[in-house]
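Supplementary Note 3. Input sequence used for the single-chain structure prediction.
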Amino acid sequence: MSEWIEIGRLEDIPVRGARVVRTPDGEVAVFRTGDDRLFALDNRCPHKDGPLSEGIVFDHKVACPLHNWKIELETGSAVAPDEGCVRTYPVEVSAEGVVRLCLAQAAA
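The predicted structure, written as discrete structure tokens, is reproduced below.
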């Protein structure tokens, strides 16, 4: 059974920005790209746990604000030559613009 939670409206997440959702297991960063796609990742870089939500969003990646590691938003994987991965979460937008996040189906 999936655990979908409402986290706000699409317009609450800035374009090329993020919103942080606090969960019992830690923070999840929900990113909105320039083409209005949404992605959700653990809010920590695999390198030194930098807050990815504070990074720069470009294309479908985010640059960690601490050491500029690039993380693929779709997969949570670091871009080569860096190595590492963070969990990703399903996220969706309803026809009414409500954003929902699934915490039960995280992928490593």
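Residues 4-102 form a domain with the Rieske Iron-sulfur Protein fold (CATH 2.102.10.10). Residues 46 and 84 are 5 Å apart (CA to CA).
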